[in-house]
Amino acid sequence: MSINHEKLEVRFLEEYERLNEMQRKAVDQLEGPVMVIAGPGTGKTQILASRIGKILLDTDALPENILCLTYTDAGVVAMRKRLLQFIGPDAYKVNIYTFHAFCNDVIQENLSLFEKTSMDPISDLEKIQLFKDLIDAFPKNHPLKRYRGDVYYEINNLTQLFSTMKREGWTPAFIHSRIDAYLADLPNRDGFIAKRAVKEFKKGDVRTDKIAEEKEKMDKLRAAVDEFDRYQALMRQRNRYDFDDMINWVIRAFEENKSLLANYQERYQYILVDEYQDTSGTQNRLVELLISYWDQPNVFVVGDDDQSIYRFQGANVENMLQFADTYRAHLMTVVLTQNYRSTQPILNISKSLIDRNEERLVKQIDGLSKDLKASNTKLLHLQHGPLIREYETQRQEMIGITREVQELLSGGVAAGRIGIIYKENRYGEELAQYFKLLNLPVYSKRNQNILDLPLAQKLLQLLRYLEQEHDQPNGGDELLFEILHYDWFAIPPVEIARLSMEVADRQFGDRRTSIRQLLIEKANAPARDLFSSGLHPQLRRASDFIEKMIGEVPNVTLQQLFEAVVREAGVLSYIMKSPEKHWLLQVLTALFDFIKEENRRDPRLRLAGLIRLIDLMEREEIAIPLVQVSGSDKGVNLLTAHGSKGLEFEHVFFAGCNASSWEKKRKPGAGYTLPDTLFNSPASHKDEEELRRLFYVALTRAEQHLHISYCRFKQDGKELEPSMFIAEILEQQPLPVEKVVIDSDILAQFSSLHFEEAQAPEIEALEEAYIQPLLDKFVMNVTALNNYLKCPLEFYFRNLVRIPSPKNEATEFGSSVHYALEQLFRKMQDRGKEEFPPKEEFVSDFIWYMHRHRESFTQEQFDRRLEYGQEVLANYYDNYIHTFNRIVAIERNIRNVVVDGVPLKGKLDKLEFDGKTVNVVDYKTGDPDKAIAKLKGPGDKDPLGGDYWRQAVFYKLLVDHYESRDWKVASTEFDFIEPDKKKNYRRQKVTISPDDTTIVTGQIRETWQKIQARDFYTGCGKPDCHWCEFVKTNNLAVRLHTLEEPDEEQD
User: Fold this and answer.
1) pLDDT confidence of 450, banded at 50, 70, 90?
2) Contact 459, 566 (CB under 8 A)
3) Could you give the 3-state DSSP secondary structure of residue 411?
4) How far apart are CA 260 and CA 264, in angstroms?
5) Strands (E), 263-321
6) What φ, ψ does residue 334 adopt, rounded to 5°?
7) Chain center to CA of 832
8) Does residue 2 carry a pLDDT above 60?
9) pLDDT value of residue 834
């Protein structure tokens, strides 16, 4: 059915009358290329819809002949909604697409051409597996290969790089050529010429050291780029593709098949592109192909370079500049400057900020002006300026904003007309608690990662345990200890503690057992007498459940296993009793859907494969996404600056505008450095300009009232700076800064909110009959001392309850290295000639131990550690074999030492003697650079001193007070068996002063006294403490203690 032209004309004229002169100019120009630069609030969506109406009225084109491409699904919805007002149901005939949706339709319409019928889009989980396989296959000296720490560190970097290559249409050969050009040009650049004499360089010399650093970065990029084709081949082998591939397939098909391209060129006589500033190189190429048939194509692009917040480094204005250059002879450029959203004072401060950016069209195309003018007649009389407020602390800032919002709501302002904007999600999460306290309605959307949510973590931990026990029975006791504490089992914690202590007491001799074995033993044991209750019924139920599920692992599908775990463990009934049942059901359903989908993709996927991939996802921070919607959409909007784009509010509170949030440095090593020769217009101050654009987007959401705020101090009293963007605004716009101090009575109203202050959990005390015997035989060692000083609960669980320590890749590799070193010196002593065994024998002892404990590694871990260990130990041997002290004692156990009334014991790796003087040597595996802080004594950052420093001093006290030997420790040396990043082997000697021994003696004495006083049931309260979080997450705390901040003097 054709469009009713009369109705359309009436609607169009009504809308057209509302347009200003520049908007009409953009709408009226139907033929040829048009570029509209539309600042915030200038009616971009309105002119796109009006232009479509004009095309349908004034030409023979049908709705099907119009193609409108936009950046997001939200943009599609907004456009369709607006168009419905013009042409009614025929709006659905206009082709409004995101770029990916358009390409998908092209592929689906031409499946025989694309030969993609058997391919599925790749999931995040499959992508991780693919990258893991890619990295595992790196040869020995590959620049990106890692042997320790996060060996799959490059996954995220490679993901981002390959996605960028696909989106921008860059081939490996193209990037290599741009790297060559970049390196060749460096000696000509000002930044690589010495400005004055420095190091070995004279003024005017080329800084070859800086060029070498850049070359090293480029070598890493080259190595990464060279993996691209192998990555694509792995995708093809698995019959998978990603969304970036779709655009490239369509581009290739259009380039190679002229009739296919001609078909779409004839179909789409008018093309409109929204959010043009954010289009990628391949999206741009797609548009170019569709319009390439005409010298003066009917293409209409709309964008605002100042609101480009989704492009990557260096590519901000390229596409718009290129478009202007390509069609310069026929292009009509329209700049919309009449703003219908905000008051002039809000626009003025926004302009004073964005004017500082160099990467802007107005600075690269002559004759453009983007000075926005307030044009909403209802707001023209409003001349009040934005408010800048300085609060004492973030807590006071949140209280201040909450109370102001409360006043606005009381005054009749609709909650949906208020927006709170901030940089990071966690600010909004905390602010929501203040709103909740006063029952203020809020609306927020938050992208959650299911893998970070407690319910999902517990279920996955349970699956991990089942897989481990099925593979190696009775090896997962540490996991089982935590699992038995899960809420849905409802087991009293003291019952689990007793169980763990009994296992620890039986670890030597014939009665050695595990928690799982002991549970089975007790569950099947007959009652000792009529009055004996036997095993606690909830423990019996948990044991029955675990045994049943372990038996199911090889016999059922992943879906069936997950369903059985949820049903049999009582998870569902636990959820239904929770006040958060709706959210928890969402989490449970989303996790189940994820497992179902992965099982559909790979019907052979079993529990072991799923667990390996989940572990990788957690390590690489790859999310299983879930959107958590809080409140009703009629509530006050809490949203990030990114999330605010395209929205507008009568009242905007732009909160948390501190330098620590806005200007914090990005971590070094995040991604690869791209040479600026990849871009036609190299960006200056890339990060700074991108952040300034984001700040500008947040400012321009405000219609009438804009409140910008920051705080002076952290909660601990440390001073904070406002964002530099506030300083830039104030330099041009002298706004008063209001210093706000919240009255103590008002602060008291919010005193129940302690989420900023750390809370230390206290657990139920164990019966004295169990604790007293443990303390009677307890002897202090350095591990127990360090555990207590880190967190008393860690000491309680690890040293008193003695939960089993798991064997993992890192600890077993360390044990293999220790064994080889012990054998090296024992064999030297046994031979009696102070002659060390050959290198091959030394390395073979390491290999023997690794194979002996093969079960602690996956196949990939074992192969990698075995290869790495052989190389590291061979080089270590060559480095030190001629300088080793041969007068040594190896693996010496020292007991029966008393210092200041406290019994001490310890096992020392090696003692080197010079007469009666001793250098204690402790072997360390791992990255030496990560040990630097641990080697330092007490200071401002760590008042108790580092663990390795304390270990050094503890060993001196232990040896010096060892009465059966007249030894004196001069120093303790930490011998790092693995080299640092520069391949150097390090030995770090700690010379111990009398002050050091006094401090550590005091720590030993005070810790001993606290342990004897049973002061180990309350944790440290630090948010990153595993045991405090374990207690809180499983609702084991009998009470929470607010930690007092240390008093700090302020100037």
Assistant:
1) very high
2) yes
3) coil
4) 7
5) 270-273, 299-303
6) -120, 130
7) 56
8) no
9) 77
Beta bridge partners of 708: 388, 654
Cβ count near 957 (within 10 Å): 23
- Cβ atoms within 10 A of the Cβ of 584, count? 20
83 touches 55 (CB < 8 A): no
The answer to whether 34 and 334 have CB atoms below 8 angstroms apart is yes
Of 442, 449, 430, 459, nearest to 575 by C-alpha is 459
Q: Quick one: which of 172, 31, 4, 155 has its CA closest to 90? A: 4
Please tell me whether residue 739 adopts helix, strand or coil conformation.
strand
Distances (CA, A) of 276 to 281, 309, 652, 703: 11, 12, 27, 25
> What pLDDT digit, counting tens, does each position of 156-170 carry?
899 989 998 998 889
Q: 């359309």: which residue's tokens?
A: 8
| Beta-carbon count within 10 A of 650 CB | 15
**Measured distance CA(549)–CA(668) in Å, rounded:** 45
Who contacts 200 (Cβ-Cβ below 8 Å, separation ≥6)? none
Burial class from Cβ neighbours inside 10 Å (0-12, 13-18, 19+) for residue 895 reads: middle
Q: Which class for 499: exposed (0-12), middle (13-18), buried (19 or more C-beta within 10 A)?
A: buried
Cβ burial, residue 497 (10 Å; 0-12/13-18/19+): buried
Parallel, antiparallel or unpaired: strands 625-630 and 888-899? unpaired
Q: How many angstroms separate the CA atoms of 841 and 854, rounded? A: 20
> For tokens 């029952």, what's the residue?
439
Specify the amino acid at residue 120: D
Read off the amino acid at residue 755.
Answer: F
> Cα–Cα distance between 175 and 165 in angstroms, integer?
9
d(CA 896, CA 497): 28
The secondary structure of 765-820 as a DSSP string is PPPHHHHHHHHHS--B-HHHHHHHHH-HHHHIIIIIS-PPPPP-HHHHHHHHHHHH
The residues with which 637 forms a beta bridge, in sequence order, are 419, 443
pLDDT value for 1046: 44
Q: What is the pLDDT of residues 760-799, one digit of tens each?
A: 899 988 888 888 888 999 999 999 999 999 999 999 999 9
End-to-end CA distance of the chain: 78
Bridge partners of 892, per DSSP, are 908
Least confident of 385-394, 612-621, 725-734: 612-621
Amino acid, res. 461: Q
For tokens 């620890």, name the residue: 504
Residue of 902, 972, 899 whose CA lies nearest to 934 = 972
In whole angstroms, what is the distance from residue 817 CA to residue 924 CA? 9
Structure tokens at 186: 């460096």
Contact at 8 Å (CB) between 290 and 87? no
More confident residue, 552 or 149: 552
What distance in Å separates the CA atoms of residue 490 and residue 499, rounded to the nearest whole number?
Answer: 16
Q: Cα 353 from chain centroid? A: 30
Specify the pLDDT at position 313: 44
pLDDT tens for residues 9-43? 888 888 889 999 999 999 999 999 999 999 999 99
- The maximal CA–CA distance of the chain, rounded, in angstroms, is 109
Count of C-beta atoms within a 10 Å radius of residue 1013: 8
8-state DSSP, 508: S
DSSP string, 532-567: ---S-HHHHHHHHHHHHHHHHTTTS-HHHHHHHHHH
Q: How many CB atoms lie within 10 A of CB 319?
A: 24
- Rounded Cα distance between 293 and 376, Å, is 41
Distance CA 96, CA 52 (A): 11
Q: What's the rounded Cα separation, in Å, for the pair 869 and 814?
A: 10
Instruction: Give bridge partners of residue 446 from the DSSP assignment.
Output: 628
Residue 619 predicted with pLDDT over 80: no
Mention every residue, 6+ apart, whose C-beta is less than 8 A from residue 641.
Answer: 421, 422, 423, 694, 695, 697, 698
